Amino acid sequence: MTSYATPEHEFEVFYDGACPLCMREIRMLRRLDRQGRIVFTDITDPSFDERAIGVDWQTLMARIHGRLPDGTLVEGVEVFRRLYAAVGFRRLVAITRWPGLRQLCELGYHLFAKNRLRLTGRCVDDRCVTR
Question: Is the dihedral of CA 43, 48, 50, 53 positive or negative?
Fold first, then answer.
């Protein structure tokens, strides 16, 4: 199951396949990735082994992560920048690096990531189910 970004790929994304919002975005990115630049790896797949990337599962669940072909890991908003650049939205990505907007994007993602399980209906009585 585990696949890796290779020189033919620009980026590998590690995503939560049990997250309805996340899956909506992943499906859209798959459609846009006509050149096959992205490797999509579902961290909820039973065959996924977090030891292969050196990041524990809880950390992967707390923030989105990705990997460059050279093995460098990135996380948070930078993952989305890499994904959208890979599918052709480089100008839009450049705007998210502008001072002020960069911080706003980081804050927005931080708030989303912190509340993602609640927002996607995966918490009951203050207990969130992740596995």
Answer: negative
